[in-house]
Sequence to fold (152 residues):
Amino acid sequence: MPVGEVEAKVWYFLEQEEELEQEEKIATQEKEKKYGIILNEKRINFYKRLSNFEKYDTIVTKNKFKITNNFYLPIEIEKITNYEYKLVKKEYSEEELQEKILKNLEEQIAPNIKDKEIINRNFSTEKNGNKLKVKLLYEVIEKIGVEEKLVS
Fold:
């Protein structure tokens, strides 16, 4: 029985625009921990106020009380950890920002072009005021046929 493969040229296109001056999150080494208990959906907090930090990320972990392998009590211990960060302004040059955006676009497009024959890769850059737009285009050969049994 004759078998054939169907291939096609497929284009993958992404674009991203960012400002040359950006605010970036820089983590400080400061953190604070708070605890609470949840009893049958009622919360008891062991802290009185909100965070001491102006800007922070929060991670909440909950642990249930377990008596045996399969039996849990309706009690949870809640641990709240706040990690402080500061916003720092950073001014990128056009080349630095272009590289940053291209790296991000390459990471996004990589799963789509994995194990495919790349024919062409192009990118273009446009500057509009204090913004930089990068467009990335990949042209690949992709197998698009589906094997089916023909009934006559």
Q: What stands out?
A: Residues 61 and 116 are 42 Å apart (CA to CA). DSSP finds one helix and seven strands in the chain. The longest strand covers residues 72-91.
